[in-house]
Amino acid sequence: MAYGRSSRLQAVGGTGTPIAAVEPLALKILVAGGFGVGKTTLVGAVSEIRPLRTEERLSEAGAPVDDTSGVPGKHTTTVAMDFGRITLREDLVLYLFGTPGQDRFWFLWDELAQGALGAVVLADTRRLEDCFAAVDYFERRGIPFLVAVNCFDGAQRHPAPTVRAALDLDPHVPLVLCDARSRDSVKEVLAGVVEHALVRRPSARR
Ligand SMILES: Nc1nc2c(ncn2[C@@H]2O[C@H](COP(=O)(O)OP(=O)(O)O)[C@@H](O)[C@H]2O)c(=O)[nH]1
Ligand SMILES: [Mg+2]
Fold first, then answer.
1. 4-204 to CATH, choices 1.10.10.10, 3.30.70.270, 3.40.50.720, 3.40.50.300
2. Residue 39 Cα, ligand 1 centroid: separation in angstroms?
3. Model's pTM, two decimal places?
4. Other CB atoms closer than 10 Å to residue 145's CB: what's the count?
5. Tens of pLDDT along 10-24?
6. Is 156 exposed, middle or buried (0-12, 13-18, 19+ CB in 10 A)?
7. Which strand (E) or helix (H) includes residue 141?
8. pLDDT digits over 37-59, tens only?
9. What is the C-alpha separation between 118 and 120, in angstroms, rounded?
């Protein structure tokens, strides 16, 4: 499903008639996963526009519900969403919407999911259970997704089959390793989710 098409100036041919320039297909991709798994980092690593962030300092009041154990150095949190854009190919632009990680923002997910082609569920193998809710959400709504394991330094690596089993993933759901800080790594993840979503939803092909 196309999220929209951006208009570009049309070139003018020799006869004076406009030649249709390549209009990039714009697709909406969600970036989900638990609190502190690297969603804001991922969007920031690839976005060509200054990512819109709605980070707030973690407050004392949120301390009982915002579990920062295992996320040292995490002082801010995304209260609504991250938003970024990347041109994957000349004719393909992705709009990235990072979902808020905390459970109390679930009500925003249905809005964000409107018109999404697919989703990336980021996972941290030290806290795999934090992405169960995102996996469930996309499975239930039939939104194609892949799981990208963010390989934090020092995080214990688990073989892909172990992670698959722990997440109880359907065999068709791709599982990839990534570094949310690396533009090239994130681009590969995004290309993977587009490919997967187009295979799962043939009607989305141009
Ligand atoms: N070492 C390492 N740190 C990361 C990586 N991805 C994110 N971080 C750090 O982990 C913390 C949480 O990331 P953030 O993007 O805010 O998580 P979010 O809550 O999912 O948006 C931040 O301090 C990031 O700098 C990674 O791949 N490796
Ligand atoms: Mg965030």
1. 3.40.50.300
2. 7
3. 0.80
4. 26
5. 444 455 555 566 788
6. exposed
7. helix 132-141
8. 999 999 999 999 876 666 556 55
9. 7
Question: Ligand 1 centre and the CA of 161: distance in Å?
Answer: 24
The residue count for the chain: 206
User: Tens digits of per-residue pLDDT, 117-167?
Assistant: 999 999 999 999 999 999 999 999 999 999 999 998 867 778 889 999 999
CA distance 115 to 1: 7
User: Within 6 Å (CB) of ligand 1, which residues are found?
Assistant: 33, 35-41, 71, 73-74, 78, 101, 150, 152-153, 179-181
* Closest by CA position to 144, among listed 116, 124, 106, 111: 116
Q: Where do the domains of the chain lie? A: 4-204
CB under 8 Å to 45, separation ≥6 — which residues? 180, 181, 182, 183, 186
